[in-house]
Design goal:
The chain has 36 helices and 14 strands. It is globular, with a radius of gyration of 32 Å. It is of the alpha+beta class. α10 runs parallel beside α15 and α30 packs across α32. A hairpin with a 4-residue loop joins β9 and β10.
Amino acid sequence: MGYRKFISILITAVMVLASVFTVSLADDTETNVGKECTTPSGITLTIPNGFENILWPGIDENDPLLASYGLKKSNVQDMYEQGGIELQCNKGIDGVMGDGNENPTSDKAIQVVIFEKNTPSDLNSAYAENIQPMSPLSFGNTEAFGYGMIDVNGIPVYKIVSRVSGDNALILNQYSLVTGSGKMHQISIMLMSDPEKKIMSYTDEDIKELNEVSEKIIGSIRLSDELAADVITPEGAEPFKMSTGEAAGSTEAKPSDANKGTVSENTKATSFFVAVTTVNIPTFVILIALALLLFLGIKPSKLREWQEEPLSLDRSKAIQGFAAVAIIVHHLAQELAEKAGAIGFFTELGVLFVGIFFFFSGYGLYTSLKTKENYLKGFLKKRLVTILVPFYMCILVFTAAACIGGMKFTPVQLVGVLSGWFLINQHMWYIVEIAILYLAFYIIYRLIKNRTAATVVMGIFVIAMMAGSLVLCHGKDMSASGWFQGEWWYNSSFLFVIGIIVSKHSEGLRRIARRGYIIWLLVLAALLVLLGPQTVYMLRRYSYWSEIPGETRAILDKLRCLSVQLPWIICFVLFLLLIMMRVRFGNPVLKFLGSISLELYLIHNLFLKGLHTDAMFNVKSAGMYCILTILLAIGLATVISGVDKYLIALITGKKKASGELDLKAGTHIHSIDVMRIVMAFLVVVIHVPFAGMAGDVFITYGKTAVPFFLVICGYFLYREDSSEMMKRLIKQTKRIFIFFIAANVFYAGVYAVYLRVTKGSFDGMKECFTAKSLTDFALYNLSPFSEHLWYLGSLLYALLIMLLLNKLKLMKFAMFLAPFLVAAYVVLSHLGIGTPVQLRNALFVGLGYIMMGMLIRRFEKKILDHKAAAPILWILSVICVVTAIVELKGYKQGVAVPFVSCEILIYLIVLLCLKYPDFGKDTFAEWLGRECSLPVYILHIAVLQLMFMTGNDKFFGRFGAVTVFVVTAVIAGLYKGIKNAITAEKSKPEA
C-alpha cells in the first residue's frame, strides 16, 4: 500500500473515530427538518435530516448509537472534556456513510464537526493548522481559498472556504465564532470521499448539496445570551472574499495542474515560529544526545579494579537523571507513533527506566535503614514529604494549565483533582504507588524486627498489590482513570523489592558478581536480547489491553505479558548494576538532571501534550517537537524543583524560616531576587498582553511590578547613618545614570533601524526631537525612543532629589511624605487630573515608592517581630488579590488606573519576602532574578521590535509574553554569564 493511500485511509479512520470523541448539551429535540442540538458553549443549531451518527453530550441515554459503540452518555461527556469537540455527524451522498460500526457504504459524504479551541493569532491558521496537516500528501494542492467576515442573523462569523485535492479532493466550508474571552467555536462542514476511490473532483450536484447543508446549519444558529455577549468581530478582519480560485460550488471542482504549489500568490509568508517548528530535524539527533549525555565523563576502572561504592547516592542520582530523560523519549515515541523514526524503538522501553526508579527507591530505603541509627524515627515526615510536595506542586501546575486552557471543573471534580484522588496528569501514578510502598515499608520494618522476615512480608505485600492492580485491569470503561488501573501500576513494581534484596545482601552479591563478572555480564546480555523481542511479541500478540469490559478480564493474557516483561526489566537493572561496578557514570549535566529527576518525570506531560496539540503550539517537526518538549520540561522542572526543595526544608525543619531578621548591611534576601524575575515577567505581560480576560488579570497584578522594583531599591538604599546612605545613593545614582544613557542611545539606534525597515526611511526620527518630545523627556522621563525607559529616568531623578535631601540632613524626615506622594498619584489618576505620562513622574512615583521602601527598612523589625505578622500578611495578601479583580470589573477606565488593592499588595509582597528571606535560595530563579531582571526589563521591547521588523511577530502566538520573556531572558542570561566569566578571569591573580 502506498504512503499516500495509507495517510488517506488514516484520515478517514480519524474522522470516523472522532465521532466517538464528540460533545454537546442539548434537549434532543427532533423537528421535521432535523435534530436540534445545543452545545455546552451555548450554540443551538439544527442538523438536517439524513445525517447519521450524531454523537454529543446531549444524546439520549438510550440512543442505539451509544450501544453500537459500547458507550454510555457519561463517557461521551467525559470525552468532550478531553477533546474539545462539541458535535460530530456525517451524511452519505447516494448511500449511508456509516452503519454505526464504521463500515462506510458511500463513496462520498458530508461531515460536520464542531470544535471549541483557543483563538489562533491568525484566523486563517484555523484551516492551515487543523485541516491540511491531517493529510499533507493526500491534499497537496490548494485550488480555491477564501476567507473573511460574514453576517449570520446578526452574528459575526469568520468564514473560510477551501478546495484542496491530491489523491483525493476535499471541499471545506468552515465557520468560526470568535469570542472576547479568547475562545473560538469552529463549525467545519466538509465534502469528502472514501480514500480508496481516489475521487479527484465532485459534481455540481455534490457541491450544491454541501452548500445547501451549510446554509441550513449556519442559518439555524442561535446563541445563548452569555455567548452572544462574548462573540466579537476580530480586530482587522475584512469582509469575506476569495483569495484564489473560484467560489466553492460555482462549478465542478477541477484538478490542479500537476506542478502547482499549495500556496497562492496572496498567501502570507510563513511565520518565523512555523518556520522554526517545521525544520525537519531527524529524530536520531535525540539518540545522539542521549548517548552523549550518558557517556560523557564516564570513568572506567582499570583492569582487575572495581568502582568504590558503585551505587552511592550521587551515582544513583545521575542514572536516575538519565532515566527521567529516557522516559520522556519513551513518551515522545508513543505520542509520535509512526512519525517517531529513529526513536520508535523507545515505545516499549519506558518500563525499563521506571524499573530503575523503583529499584533505587527500594535500595535507598534499606541502605539507610541498615546504616543510620533510628532511621525509622520521623521516617514518614521525611520520606513522604519529599515526594508529596512535588506531587501537589504538579497538581497545581496542571490544574492551572487546564483552567487557562478552558477546562471547567465541578466542585466535586476540583476537590478530587486537587486531593490527588483523580490524577489530572496520568504520569503521577508513580508518586501514588511509591507513597504506598514507603508507608508499607515503614509499617512492616517497624513492626517486624527480623529483617529477613520483614523483607519476605514486604515482597508478599508488593505481589498482592500487583495482583490487585492486574485484576482491576483498565477500569469498566477502559479509561484507566482510577488508581491501580493499567499495567504500568504493576509491571515494574517488584523492582522495589529487588532493590531491598540487593541492599540487604550487597556485600555477598558483590563478591559473587566479581568472581564470575564476565560470565554474569554475558548471561544477562543474552537474556536481554532474548527477552526483549519476546516481550514485544507478547505485548502485540496477547496485550495488556485484551479485556472486554463486562465480559472478560483477560487475566491470562496479562500474565503472559508480565511473565516475560518483568524478567526483562530485572535483567536490565541487574545488567546496569554490573556495568556500574566497573564504570562510573557522571557529568555535571547528569548530576543536575538527577537533582530534578522527579519533577522532570512529573511535569513533562504538560509539554508532551501541549506542543502536539493546540493547547500551546502544534509543533509539526517530529525532531523539533522532541527537542522543545525535553528542553521546556527541564526548564519548568528546574523552577518547580527550587520551590519544592524550599517547601520540603520548611516542613522537615532542615532549614528554618528566619523568625528574626539580621539587618546587617551584608544580609542577602534570596526571596527578593526570586521575586525580581517574577516582576520582570509581569512587566513583559503588560507590554505583550495575553488575549481576553486573562490579559486584563495579568495586567492587574502587573501593576505591582515597577513599584516593587522601586520599593526594594529604597529598602536597600536606606541606612541609619546618613554618611553611609550618601555613599550608597552616589553609587546607585552613577549606576542608573550609565544605564539611562546607554539604554536611550541603544533604543535610538533600534528605533532608527525599525523606521528604516518598516517605513523605508529615517524621517520618523524627527518626531523624537520636537519641542513636545524633548519636554516630555525632560519633565516626565518619557523617552522618545521607547516609552518603557521612563522607569530609568524616574529612578534617576528620584535619586538626585534624595541626594539633595540627604545632603541637607532632611532625608529621614522627608521619607514620611512617601505615603502622601503615592496617594496623590492614585487619587489624581482616578479623578482624571493630568495624563498618565504626567502623573507617572519622578516625584509621585519615583520618589514616593523609593521612600516607601526606606520606611519599610526603617520599621521592618517592629512589623515582622510581631507574633501575628505572618498570618496577617498572608490574610491581607489574599484579600488584596481578590479585591483587585473586583476593582478590575468596577472601574470604567478598566486597567488604565492604579488599583488600590495592588498598591497595598506591593508592600505586602515586599514584607513577605523579608519574612521568608531564604525562599528560593540557591535556585536558578534566584540567579535569574539577581543577574537578569534589569536586562530583561530593558531589552524585551527590543526583542519585540526585532520580531516585528523581520515580519516574525506571529512567532509570539497566543503566548506572546512567554515567548518574548524567554527569548529576552536567554539573551540576558548569556550576556551576564559571559560578563561574569570575563570578570572572574580578570580577577585571577597572575602566576
